[in-house]
Design brief:
alpha/beta, Rossmann fold, Arc Repressor Mutant, subunit A, nine-stranded mixed β-sheet, two-stranded antiparallel sheet, 11 helices, elongated
Length: about 290
């Protein structure tokens, strides 16, 4: 059984020293990854759109092998997905739940297994609340400031106009963090907060390459292997690959944009999936 320890201040994440309202105490279950790596907090709603889930997965997949730590809040939705995809890519991850760290009160209860996986992979759970403190309405806003304060940058996948995600992002702005934001449709309530953040000066992130550039990571694609991959594709497969490279799309839009017969598109998509060039996530196709 992994012990919950009260951290000596000398062992705290150093960026907590730069926020105006640092915690009085910190409890840790597991381990804290290397502070010399770039720490990125990823946030979004508990009930994200399918598109937001695809984007979250695609962005974290693109960071595999980089010197980065993924931070989130263990909640249902984007938080849990961020931790899960980080683990799938062997990236260290830290969860800051809105509760104490005891198994009896850890929130949400359905993510206890995920929490154990985070610890087993060398990451940790962090809280300013004593181990037996249950989640309550007041615990989450205070937790949000730690999520903003612990990281070098904050990535907002999706956020409504009045949401905990938006609160965390605004705290990050107050703490002089770089706020990276995925823009969304002006007709979607789940994008009202993110679009407003961009209007107020946050950095828009339009692709995985945008994210890596903002984080200071070079694009890891090898130009020669990309060229070889293209030589191995049929004309129809090249058309579909280029369409999906610009946007994550459902199959009906791919057919519409390709000017190909539906049967040709279906065959090309099937071949691209077999070649592990594209994948289907929730009805939206994206590049791997």
């Amino acid at each position: 059984m992994v012990e919950i320890i009260k951290l000596d201040k000398k062992l705290w994440p150093p960026l907590f020293n730069e926020i105006p309202d640092p915690p009085k105490e910190l409890y840790l279950k597991g381990a804290l990854p290397d502070f010399n790596k770039l720490w990125l907090t990823i946030i979004g709603p508990r009930r994200p759109s399918q598109q937001a889930m695809v984007i979250c997965r695609q962005f974290i997949d693109s960071l595999a092998g980089q010197e980065i730590v993924i931070v989130s809040g263990l909640a249902i939705g984007i938080d849990g997905l961020a931790h899960q995809v980080a683990l799938e890519n062997n990236l260290p991850t830290v969860a800051i739940p809105g509760s104490g760290l005891s198994d009896r009160v850890l929130y949400p209860a359905r993510h206890k297994l995920l929490a154990n996986k985070i610890i087993s992979a060398g990451g940790g759970l962090l809280s300013e609340y004593s181990p037996e403190t249950p989640a309550a309405p007041y615990t989450f806003p205070r937790r949000n400031r730690l999520m903003a304060g612990i990281a070098h940058k904050v990535l907002v996948i999706e956020a409504g106009e009045k949401s905990g995600t938006l609160i965390t992002a605004r705290l990050g702005l107050e703490y002089n963090k770089d706020i990276l934001v995925v823009p969304g449709s002006i007709f979607s309530p789940l994008s009202a907060g993110t679009n407003r953040l961009i209007k107020e000066g946050a950095e828009p992130i339009l692709s995985a390459d945008d994210l890596k550039e903002s984080l200071g990571f070079k694009n890891s694609h090898n130009e020669k292997s990309d060229n070889k991959m293209n030589l191995d594709l049929s004309p129809e497969e090249k058309i579909i690959k280029n369409i999906i490279a610009r946007n994550n799309l459902p199959i009906d839009e791919i057919i519409s944009k390709s000017n190909l017969e539906a049967s040709q598109v279906l065959m090309a998509i099937s071949n691209l999936e077999i070649k592990k060039i594209i994948a289907d996530s929730g009805g939206l196709f994206h590049l791997l």
